[in-house]
Amino acid sequence: MITWAFLSTWVRARFGDTERGASLVEYAFLAALIAVVCIAAMALLGGATSSTLDGVGSSVGSAS
């Protein structure tokens, strides 16, 4: 009887429907999505930020 219990447990663990490792894939997708959003934000807002800071730098430089 002990052998049958061991064998059935092993078969379920080996071939059963488990979701081990699914969270790792989900975290990888989440990290990739965050990276894409950050790159897109820098690409879209980089030019506007640069021109704004150039204007501020020019007005500070001319005031002194």
Brief summary:
This protein is an all-alpha fold. The chain has helices at residues 2-15, 22-63.
Topology:
Layout: H1 2-15, H2 22-63
Any key phrases for this structure?
single chain; 64 residues; mainly alpha; 88% helix; rod-shaped
Mean pLDDT: 80
Give the end-to-end Cα distance, rounded to a whole number of Å: 91 Å
What is the total tally of β strands? 0
Please identify the structural class as seen in this structure: mainly alpha
Secondary-structure element order, as H and E? HH
- Proportion in helices: over 70%
Oligomer: single chain
- The percentage of residues in β strands lies in under 5%
Major beta-sheet overview: none
C-alpha Rg, in Å?
28 Å
- What overall form do the CA principal axes indicate? rod-shaped
If helices are DSSP runs of H or I spanning 4 or more residues, what is the number of helices? Answer: 2
Provide the low-confidence segments as ranges. none
3D architecture notes:
The protein is mostly helical. It has 2 helices and no strands. The protein has helices at 2-15, 22-63. The longest helix has 42 residues, at 22-63. The radius of gyration is 28 Å and the shape is rod-shaped.
